[in-house]
Amino acid sequence: MPAIADPVSRLLGIRASGPLPLMSAVENGLPLAALDRVVRSVAPSDSKFAFRIVARATLARRRKASADATVRGGSRLSAEEGTRLARLAGVWTAALDVWGSEEAARRFMFEPHALLHGRRPVDVVLENELGRPVVEGILGRLKYGSAV
Questions:
Q1: Could you give the CA distance from residue 28 to residue 26 in angstroms, rounded to a whole number?
Q2: Within 13 A of 29's CA, how many CA atoms are on the CB side?
Q3: List of residues 6+ apart from 64 with CB closer than 8 A
Q4: pTM score, two decimals?
Q5: How many helices (H) and strands (E) does the chain have?
Q6: Span 112-125, mean pLDDT?
Q7: Where are the domains of the chain?
Q8: Boundaries of each Antitoxin Xre/MbcA/ParS-like toxin-binding domain copy (predicted)?
Q9: Helix-strand-coil percent breakdown of the chain, rounded to 5?
Q10: Residue 17: which region, alpha, beta or left (left: phi > 0; alpha: psi -120 to 50)?
């Protein structure tokens, strides 16, 4: 999976070459800027999309802490939030690879899919870790010409 780590790290705006450094970055707390970058890429017209990754009140508190230079550590995502964000970033970069454009990738991510029993890929991915390989499997079949 090293091939996926580099585009994911670039999307997150962090320096990590490979899955283990990416895991460490997530465990140590991704910066809020990583959240902003992914949200701008995946759902630029949805002002509430970030709240699917971080609760509204928590995000507001972290943004306030980030603006206050005397507060340390409040401007990073928790490991759980970072994992959710990295999971989304991984599937998003795979969708971009398959579809070739943000518009087409967005259409795939946000439209119900028959192989997901009418659920949207973005919802399946964000729900829990088990959804990621299911959506990546669909993307893999699309990329390599299998039936989907």
A1: 5
A2: 10
A3: 74
A4: 0.87
A5: 8, 0
A6: 97
A7: 2-144
A8: 94-145
A9: 70, 5, 30
A10: beta
